[in-house]
Structure formats: C-alpha cells, structure tokens
TrEMBL record:
PANTHER family linked to this entry: RIBOSOMAL PROTEIN L25/GLN-TRNA SYNTHETASE, ANTI-CODON-BINDING DOMAIN-CONTAINING PROTEIN, RIBOSOMAL PROTEIN L25_GLN-TRNA SYNTHETASE, ANTI-CODON-BINDING DOMAIN-CONTAINING PROTEIN
Record domain Large ribosomal subunit protein bL25 beta: where: 98-177
Pfam families: Ribosomal_L25p, Ribosomal_TL5_C
Similarity field: Belongs to the bacterial ribosomal protein bL25 family. CTC subfamily.
Name used for this protein in its record: Large ribosomal subunit protein bL25
Gene name per UniProt: rplY
Keyword match RNA-binding: yes
Amino acid sequence: MLEGIVRDSITKPAVKALRKDGYLIANIYGKGLENISAAFKRNEFIKYLKNKTTVTFDVKVGGNTLKVVVQEYQKCPITSDLLHVDLMVAQAGVRTSYKIPVFTTGSAKGLKNKGLLMLHTRRIPVKCKIEDLPNGITLDVTNLDTGDNILIRDITLPETVDCYLDPRVPVVGVIKAK
C-alpha cells in the first residue's frame, strides 16, 4: 500500500519545499467527497505504479485508506519529471469515466515488410462502474500488415462498459517506414 501525507498548506513556497524534499504533489477527489491535498514520495510512487497489476490501487493518507485511480498527471516539459498527479476515488456503484491501458501481444507480420508498430492510443477512455472496469485491453497484432490498423470499433468491451471515442479512431497499427 502506498502511504502519503496530507498537505497543510497549498501555497507555492510550500509546494516548492515539498518537491525539493522529493515529494510528488497529489490531489485526491471523488463524487460527494471533500478534496484531499496530499503528497507522496516521488520514487516510491513511481515504483508502486510500475509494479501494480490493476487500474485501481490503495493509498493511505491521513489515517484513511482509499481505493483510487490515476486520472491525470503532469510532467515537466524539460526534464520529464513527474510533478503532479490527480487521483480519483473509485466509489462502488458510481458510474464514472476511467482510462484503461492498452497492451499488445504477438509480432505483427508488417514488421518483416519494413513497417513500424504504432500504438496510437495508450489509454482508452471508458465509462462504467468500478466493479465492471477491465484491468486493460490486450490486442493481438500478429495479423497486422503494413497499413493495417485496429480501430475502436474492432475492440469488444463488456456490455456494461461504454467507450465514448469515435469508432473510427485507430488504437494500434503498422505504418510504412520511410
């Protein structure tokens, strides 16, 4: 479980001091809940997120244990360091928006024809209850040749999960290398 601290002050000097001490600034929010300004050790947070197997994970802030989902994050444009993260509390029975990751399996046959595998969309936005949320979408790319794509309409999602992207949006494809 990831442990964090509640931030007392949200002023700019306080945020800079926390970042200097190696903390990642976070906001935790949810429907009908009071927002929590928190901070996590940056390296612990990144290690924990790399090793998690589900979309949701538990955090402990101020004595409360919450099940959360990463909704948004901000990186420094120069150093690519993680600066800020928004965590949404995953409440049972509440239908809300989530972003689920896309994974690929296999080796596309278009790679042998000097093609490049492009993952156009890394996370697909869906709307569902947390109980129905899939941990990810795995796509088999072995039959993709140069110029072929897998579109949103080609993905089968459970009936209780709705994707609100245009069905013509490509998720993964093989493009011709120049």
